[in-house]
Amino acid sequence: MRRASPFVIAALGVALLLGWYVIYTQRVVSELRRAAQLQGRMSSRIYSVLADTSSTEGTRLEALLGLAAEIGQSGVPLVLIAPSGEIADAINLPFDTPPSDSVLRAYVRQMDALNPPIEAPGAGSIHIGDSRLVRGLATIPLLQAGAIGLLLLFGAWGFRERGRAEREKVWAGMARESAHQLGTPLSSLAGWVELLADRDSSDPAIARAVSQMEQDLVRLDRVAHRFERIGRPPRRDPVELGEMVERLATYFAARVPQRTRKVVVRAERPSEPLIIGGDGVLLEWVLEVLTKNAIDALGGRGGEVVLRAEPLAEGGARIRVQDNGPGVPRALRKKIFDAGVTTKERGWGIGLALARRIVQENHGGRLVLVEGGPGATFDVILPA
To answer: Among residues of the chain, what percentage have pLDDT more than 90?
Structure first.
């Protein structure tokens, strides 16, 4: 539905625009027919008086009064100003209440800017404004052009979104295929590690190395499963966040510098289980991206990275990944989650963009960069 919505909205917009245009043009045709009938009645009165050779002054006056009444029905604003400069009469004015003299004279100046006044010898000058139909015909084309322009822009945006959706579909397919291809070498490596553990279990150094290799194999297997989740419907499995942050902190703590420029990675978790509904594999990916970035920011200087899971008073949970490194440059703070933006010389700039997408689209949460404080602090806010 999210992919099809731009085209559905564009189609509805075009249909509404066309429907409105047809209704409006029919209304214009109806108004023009009414104006033609009015002109016909006025012409009939004029020709009747001219053809009646026996007509008297009273009959002619009655005909003129009838013509004046017909003019009043035309809807055209008219203002008669006497030779003395006073406003003698006004009909069809676009005011809900009778205007004051100053307002009416300002309106007369607007009328004169549109239509030159007509002199009526002995009666003064007649000032003509635009009828409602004329005003509509003057503004409607501008509204139509604007609406069509918006529809064209919306259509271009829709095609762009469609192209992006196709690219994402290709990338998702490639990710799942990569996960499938990783299965064979992972199985082979697991066999070799098991064989090495059986042959050299007496050597403590080799035993420790084998233990770490086994953990790395488990990690690689999880990475492979992450790729399989891309492009698939989100999952709502129970996930214990406290156990997750502790497991990640333990994993990274064994793989960061411990002698010179020591880096400490530790976890803080509540005493009670903190469980939310989500995809544990993808959430772990998000935290791994944030933790890896924090460790990289401390490279060459040492420091501390803290993974903290805590419940929120309004429901849900927050996972905070905080370091005491140099922090995010101010120039990059507003676009740090954009794809291609990175502070690393050889970085791709897709980790944070992917992490935010997982949090927002797969879990309905938020991934934010917290302002202030030493270093960089990222909050993963998840609903209950």
So the answer is: 18
Same structural domain for residues 38 and 97? Answer: no
Residues 69 and 108 in one domain: no
Q: Which helix (H) or strand (E) holds 238?
A: strand 237-240
Same domain flag for 277 and 337: yes
* DSSP assignment of 148-206: HHHHHHHHHHHHHHHHHHHHHHHHHHHHHHHHHHHHHHHHHHHHHHHHHHHHSTT-HHH
Q: Say which residue the tokens 């245009």 belong to.
A: 21
Asked if 287 and 239 count as a contact pair (C-beta separation under 8 A), the reply is: no
pLDDT higher than threshold 70 for residue 43: no
Q: Which domain holds residue 304?
A: 234-382
pTM of the model: 0.53
| Backbone dihedral angles phi then psi of residue 229, each to the nearest 5 degrees | -80, -20
Burial label, 296 (beta-carbon count in 10 A; 0-12, 13-18, 19+): middle
pLDDT at 1: 42
Shared-domain flag, residues 1 and 48: yes
Q: How many alpha carbons lie under 13 Å from residue 145 in its C-beta half-sphere?
A: 6
Amino acid residing at 236: R
Q: How many domains in the chain? A: 3
Exposure b/e, 262-273, CB count within 10 A at least 16 = b: ebebebebeeee
CA 311, 315, 316, 321 dihedral sign is negative
Q: 3-class DSSP state for residue 347?
A: coil
Asked if residue 125 and residue 15 are part of one domain, the reply reads: no
Residue 154 within any structural domain of the chain: no
Nearest to 114 by CA among 131, 137, 103, 130: 130
Is 376 within 8 Å of 294 (Cβ atoms)?
Answer: yes
Contact residues for 275 (Cβ-Cβ < 8 A; gap 6+): 238, 239, 240, 241
Considering the domain boundaries, does residue 189 fall inside one? Answer: no
Mean pLDDT of 178-207: 69
